[in-house]
Amino acid sequence: MSEFSNTLLGNRYQIRERIGAGGMARVFKAWDTVLERAVAVKILYEHLAEDATFQQRFEREAKAVASFNHPNIVQIFDFDRFERDGQTLYYMVMAYIPGKTLKNVLDEMCARDERLSLERIEQIMTQLLDAVGYAHAQGAIHRDIKPGNILFNERGQAILTDFGIARLAQGVRLTRDSVTVGTPAYMSPEQAVGGAVDARSDLYALGIMLYEMLTGKVPFDDDGSLSVLFRHINDPIPSALPYLSMGSEALDIVLLKALAKDPDQRYASAEAFAADLQAAFAGKPVLPPKAGATADFSIITGPPQKVSSNPVNRVSLALNTITRYIPPTTRRYAPLGIFIVGMVLIGVLVGASLVNNQLRSAPPAAPTEAITGSMTGNDAESMTSDDPPEFESTFAPDDATNSWWPLGESTSVSRMLTPDGFLRFVNHIAGAAMTTILDAEYNYDFVSITLIATLDAASPPTSGYGIVFRYQDNDHYNVFAVDGRGRYSIWVRDDGQWTELRRSSGGDWTPNDAVLPIGSPNRLTIRVQGNLLTGQVNGTQVAQVTDSTLEPGRIGIYLATPENASEAVLLVDAYGAVPSVPTMTESSRSGDGR
């Protein structure tokens, strides 16, 4: 039994039983003795009232929400306060909805390894977007949209609850470890860093819910630590395409727009979100995310932005290290705490950046269909040296390694440095594979090579790009590549003939969730240890093969176009190589003595 059982609030509402609890309130089923009907009563936690201005804010928010009149927003009947054991407690009385929450439904379906039908998802999202659009028009932001705040009435309609509750906690000194304004798994990047919140933050949360309903899981699991917040800030949203049926690419575009890191690249309104969603469910095309917006966060759609210009991305490098030393906990942190942690880490990184020689860990880009065609080599004069250098090319205007890369234009290929710090590599020939080889005749053997690059959204999706290594000449080299469809492969070109080294029965190109689709930056790493080749995409190992075909050789970048296609454009953010120390079990050429 609850400590409030049989309590009579306002001489009218008799508490019957406790039916739930959240981060800011306990929920009870009660009986309205005047109108003789069941109601739901939310009693806010005592500590929320410790702020001297809370009463004014409570009355303001409660009145605003009570004025709402929308079929998909729970109706507020009454609100007041009462004294108990010398403490002031605040409560809201609302319609009692006996149905399950969306969280209950999704959990049950997950346990059965099932997902909601597309028709049901469209119905739920349409109702919620209409509700949120209505509230936004009244000047109200929810701030904590999640499946647990969505109830279904007896007609199966989705009802949004808890408007105004999250706002009440803003500015309050949170003395309970379990309290947070917002739920990390559904929290927008700007919420995660304590930034300004507007209607687009609610739309981001709805985008996360759409993703969860379509795929059966949230993009970033909430393990109770800070990591999920950092992933919302820095990590690209994994593509939903592997979970969708053929012809559902428009839904993936809707998700990319709803879940853009930069609020300016998201939907500007719930109505715009709903229009695209309805078009996608009807099988109609949806315009891709708009280009050209600037951002404080890592962008996963539209033209890529230099990682080096993004302080949040620089913070992520330290966070990825520092969070390893935070004890495991189920505690959830308020955005203010995240903001403070972020500010501290920015200060740490400003000092550490001068000695940071590692590649930036930005999210990377995608592969192609069949790789055929001619290769263009490097005609520039080469530097020579005994030992291959460890280096990183950022392609910034003052980068000393810019002179190591061949530049220029021809009818078949174009290579140029852009003012904003990219190497722009263009393949003008359909059905051809082109290379850009580092202008230095070093033979790299035990080495780890990393490429961060984005296939331009206007390129054919089956264009492939990646890392060239063990390059001897145009007809002899290896390639580790991805394409715009979210696939990867690893090849050897020997005497002008291509062989996929995995020899997989599934085909030369293999889909993988780690590979982001066209328009998104991908980070490719190939670790060469003699004949042992290990490929990673965005930190996930996707391939490990052996190949004794070629000797150590030069390194570079690869870009190929499919047959009967327009040109492919690759924007390279960074490229670098560091020694990969052989283990005690590895010979100089891994097994065959070469």
Give a verbal description of the structure.
The chain has 594 residues and is α+β, with helices and mostly antiparallel strands. It folds into three domains: 8-95, Phosphorylase Kinase, domain 1 (2-Layer Sandwich), CATH 3.30.200; 102-351, Transferase(Phosphotransferase), domain 1 (Orthogonal Bundle), CATH 1.10.510.10; 391-579, Exo-inulinase, domain 1 (Jelly Rolls, Sandwich), CATH 2.60.120. It has helices spanning 54-66, 102-111, 118-137, 165-169, 189-192, 199-215, 227-234, 249-258, 270-281, 311-322, 335-352, and strands at 8-9, 13-21, 25-32, 37-44, 76-84, 87-95, 150-152, 158-160, 391-393, 408-409, 413-417, 423-427, 433-437, 447-455, 464-473, 476-482, 487-494, 497-500, 510-511, 521-529, 532-537, 540-546, 554-560, 568-579. Strands 9, 10, 11, 12, 14, 20, 21, 22 and 24 form a nine-stranded antiparallel β-sheet that branches. Strand 5 and strand 6 form a beta hairpin. Helix 3 runs antiparallel to helix 6 and helix 7 (227-234) packs antiparallel against helix 10. It is elongated and about 90 Å long. Mean pLDDT is 78; it is low at 169-180, 291-341, 343-385 and 583-594.
Number of helices in the DSSP assignment: 11
In the CATH hierarchy, the architecture of the largest domain is Orthogonal Bundle
* CATH C-level name of the largest domain: Mainly Alpha
Average pLDDT score:
78
Task: Provide the fold topology.
Layout (H helix, E strand, L loop, with lengths): L7 E2 L3 E9 L3 E8 L4 E8 L9 H13 L9 E9 L2 E9 L6 H10 L6 H20 L12 E3 L5 E3 L4 H5 L19 H4 L6 H17 L11 H8 L14 H10 L11 H12 L29 H12 L12 H18 L38 E3 L14 E2 L3 E5 L5 E5 L5 E5 L9 E9 L8 E10 L2 E7 L4 E8 L2 E4 L9 E2 L9 E9 L2 E6 L2 E7 L7 E7 L7 E12 L15
Antiparallel strand pairs: 1-2, 2-3, 3-4, 4-6, 5-6, 7-8, 9-24, 10-11, 11-12, 12-24, 13-23, 14-20, 14-24, 15-16, 15-23, 16-17, 17-18, 17-19, 20-21, 21-22
